[in-house]
Design a protein that fits this description.
Helix content of chain A: 10-25%
Radius of gyration of chain A: 18 Å
CATH class of the largest domain in chain A: Alpha Beta
Largest sheet of chain B: 4 strands, mixed
CATH architecture of the largest domain in chain A: 2-Layer Sandwich
Order of helices and strands of chain A: EEHEEEHHEHEEHEHH
Shape of chain B: globular
Largest sheet of chain A: 5 strands, mixed
CATH topology of the largest domain in chain A: Alpha-Beta Plaits
Number of strands of chain A: 9
Oligomer: heterodimer
Bound molecules: iron/sulfur cluster, FE2/S2 (inorganic) cluster
Helix content of chain B: 40-55%
Structural class of chain B: alpha+beta
Strand content of chain A: 5-15%
CATH architecture of the largest domain in chain B: Orthogonal Bundle
CATH topology of the largest domain in chain B: Cytochrome-c3 Hydrogenase, chain B
Number of helices of chain A: 7
Distance between the termini of chain B: 32 Å
Distance between the termini of chain A: 24 Å
Largest interface: A-B, 19 and 23 residues
């Protein structure tokens, strides 16, 4: 007999060991998330995937599903918190969507639309973060890093290279490149690496290809993120 | 070409009248006038008060981002910046000649921009003054008043603009902040459906543009005393011209003439623009004052935009607009027309040309092609120049071997017209304000003079955030009493 839990009044089947978000996505129900990726161990840092389980808040990417759980996700209260978290991410970095080459393919932007975020609300930090353009094929634009650690996990766990790391604590946390010089050119990163593909925002970019895809044909032009992700079952 | 009224001999004890912000000019501008006890005008300056430091902003960014990013410079002609930056980046990526599909799509985008910008300026911003008079009832002197008194004219203004915006949307992807043009070409051709949608409306657009030329021509000819002399000053003029001296908004070489129409230079490759044009910094303004090097800063300033272009070219390569150009040249009597209000007439001739050129492009199957981008040998320096709605627009970039912009220099149309606008304002002040009580109607005359040039003041400030600026107070003997300067 399949076991189920209840998500916003709907029965969601799950297998042993599955997290709430895994089961929900497999059932075609979208829960907003940024640091979760189906191919990697959960990181539980962005808190966008927060849900209420039997009345208590928890990250759905780290919480295992259990039979009979009562889970709330798509409520005005929870979405308002998610919206505030997203707004904070926007002001902590320099996210200017109209001139960003990841616009239309960016998970942060798509999530902000999904949550109905109309403005950043908080004061911008306007941090000063120069790009690392040292690598001949890749550009790092640190201005947009949301510290999800996906590139760290991909480089370490899939590529076996350890090119990226998160350094510092709290508000000082930032992405670094593991090279003596700190420059991407002095690492063994390669174009085909998983780490090059996973960034949900516009930090790790293939050079000289920005804006090649016209407006209308980008990922989230075709369908909003909730549908896109639910269709993929990721 | 005098500098009268740029600086009052004794600015102390003078009453300051500020028009701020100049209403109905997009962006932010400020005119200050120093008057004495008898309301005599001693000093008139057009200030650009907005300050944005864009060149600094662009430095350190990857070059392919620049054509999209520079659209933030200007809310009313973003496409001009998009294309001027793309043209500069074409040079950087070694794409000296684009594919026919790419070049024609960019032209289409640009002519759409011309149409919508000229329509906006004429119908929304200027028609109230032109149809009702400069000192008519201020409560009716606006677009709502035009809509009530001339509903058909107002409606056409809206539809002309909308058509231009649709052209932009189909070529750039969006009405504002499109991404259609990329270094070396474009990212998208037109689909047959998009082409047909635009084609179905183009004939009335051309007809209405012709009517608009005739409307302003009539207004102008009916009152030569005003239209041929209001704010008048003589100056050099400059623009790019296309093949065989054609009027061309998208591409060509630089040509400048003196106030009598005699060539100063012609056929200049704009990659060398800085050998021909220099920019002067004046302590009282953030905006620079460009001039032709061969003539020098005293007399080398010039005007750009419709009045310059229509008189600088040898012909317009579309029939209706060429007919109207000839009418205009005949009216001017074989010598260059310098009256600022003639900008309106020439602007409408340009709008007609844009409409006709769009029609010709829409009948060209190259727009549907698949060959979108070319590349060649990389270069470090690239200059892109385009005739934007308000005049010649220069974008110059240096890009290092890591693909990052290390230097940016922009000369926007409004900066090119900086001295010219100041001259027009001084002339109007001398003629209409001198010794009189200041009324709203009189002040509006000054705005009318500025507005003829269609300045986009918000994008015209040219600085890195560190330009020295100083304020001086001088007493009756001409001695310095107080100086305030920022280093
Ligand atoms: S670079 Fe991208 S993938 Fe890596 S931590 Fe930052 S946002 Fe995440
Ligand atoms: S997706 Fe769960 S905490 Fe980020």
């Amino acid at each position: 007999m399949t076991q189920t839990f209840t998500l916003d009044g709907k029965a969601i089947p799950f297998a042993d060991g599955q997290t709430i978000i895994q089961a929900a996505l497999a059932a075609g129900v979208f829960i907003p998330h940024l640091c979760y990726h189906p191919e990697f161990k959960p990181h539980g840092s962005c808190k966008l995937c927060t849900v209420k389980v039997n009345g208590r808040q928890t990250a759905s990417c780290t919480m295992r599903a259990a039979a009979g759980m009562q889970v709330e996700s798509n409520t005005e209260e929870i979405n308002a918190e998610r919206r505030a978290l997203t707004q904070m991410l926007f002001v902590e970095g320099n996210h200017f969507c109209p001139s960003c080459e990841k616009s239309g393919d960016c998970q942060l932007q798509a999530t902000a639309y999904h949550l109905g975020m109309m403005s950043p609300h908080f004061d911008h930090f306007f941090p000063n973060r120069p790009v690392d353009a040292s690598h001949p094929e890749l550009l790092l634009d640190f201005n947009r890093c949301i510290l999800c650690s996906l590139c760290v996990r991909a480089s370490r766990d899939v590529d076996g290279k350890n090119v990226f790391a998160l350094s510092g604590r709290g508000i000082k946390t930032h992405l670094i490149v593991n090279a003596k010089s700190g420059r991407l050119a002095d690492t063994d990163i390669a174009l085909g690496d998983k780490a090059v593909q996973v960034c949900p925002v516009g930090v790790i970019l293939r050079k000289r290809t920005g804006f090649a895809v016209p407006i209308g044909e980008r990922t989230y032009d075709k369908a909003p993120i909730a549908e896109t992700v639910a269709q993929e079952g990721t | 070409m005098t500098y009268n009224l740029e600086t009052a001999a004794h600015p102390e004890k003078l009453r300051r009248v500020a028009i701020d912000p100049v209403s109905r000019v997009e962006g932010h501008g400020k005119v200050t006038i120093l008057l004495d006890d008898q309301n005599k005008v001693h000093q008139v300056r057009l200030h650009i008060v907005e300050f944005r430091g864009f060149e600094k902003f662009i430095q350190g960014r990857p070059y392919w981002e620049v054509p999209v990013m520079v659209q933030r410079l200007c809310g009313i002609c973003p496409v001009s910046h998009h294309l001027a930056a793309s043209k500069a980046m074409d040079v950087i990526v070694g794409a000296r000649k684009l594919t026919p599909t790419a070049e024609k799509l960019r032209r289409l985008m640009h002519y759409g921009q011309m149409l919508q910008s000229h329509a906006l300026h004429f119908f929304h911003l200027c028609s109230p003054d032109l149809l009702f008079g400069f000192d008519s009832d201020v409560t009716k002197r606006n677009i709502v008043g035009v809509a009530a008194a001339h509903p058909e004219t107002a409606k056409r203004g809206v539809l002309l603009r909308k058509f231009g915006q649709e052209v932009i949307r189909h070529t750039a992807g969006k009405r504002v902040h499109g991404t259609g043009s990329v270094p070396g070409g474009v990212n998208k051709a037109l689909t047959v459906a998009e082409r047909d949608e635009l084609l179905k409306d183009i004939y009335p657009i051309i007809a209405w543009s012709r009517d608009a030329v005739h409307l302003i021509q009539k207004v102008h000819i009916q009152d030569p005393g005003l239209y041929n002399s209001f704010g008048i000053f003589r100056s050099n003029f400059m623009s790019i011209v296309g093949h065989n001296g054609d009027l061309d908004f998208y591409h060509g070489s630089l040509r400048a003439r003196d106030d009598n129409g005699k060539l100063i230079f012609d056929g200049v490759d704009y990659q060398d623009y800085d050998r021909y044009i220099e920019e002067e910094v004046k302590p009282w303004s953030y905006m620079k004052f460009p001039f032709l090097r061969s003539i020098g800063k005293e007399n080398g300033w010039y005007k750009v935009g419709p009045l310059a272009r229509v008189q600088n070219c040898d012909q317009i390569p579309t029939p209706f607009a060429e007919h109207e150009r000839k009418e205009f040249v005949d009216y001017a009597g074989g010598t260059p027309m310098h009256a600022p209000l003639a900008y309106h007439w020439t602007r409408m001739i340009e709008m007609l040309h844009a409409a006709e050129a769009i029609k010709e492009l829409l009948h060209d199957d190259d727009l549907l092609g698949a060959d979108l981008v070319v590349q060649g040998e990389r270069r470090t320096d690239g200059v892109g120049v385009i005739e934007a709605p308000r005049g010649t627009l220069f974008h110059h970039y240096r890009v290092d071997e890591n693909d990052v912009v290390t230097m940016a220099n922009l000369i926007v149309s409004t900066t090119n017209n900086n001295q010219a606008m100041n001259e027009a304002v001084r002339h109007v002040a001398r003629r209409y304000l001198h010794g009189r009580e200041v009324t709203e109607g009189l002040l509006n005359h000054i705005e009318v003079a500025i507005r003829a040039f269609d300045p986009c003041l918000s994008c015209a400030t040219h600085a890195l955030g560190k330009m020295p600026l100083e304020v001086e107070l001088v007493d009756a003997e001409g001695a310095l009493v107080h100086r305030l300067s920022r280093s």
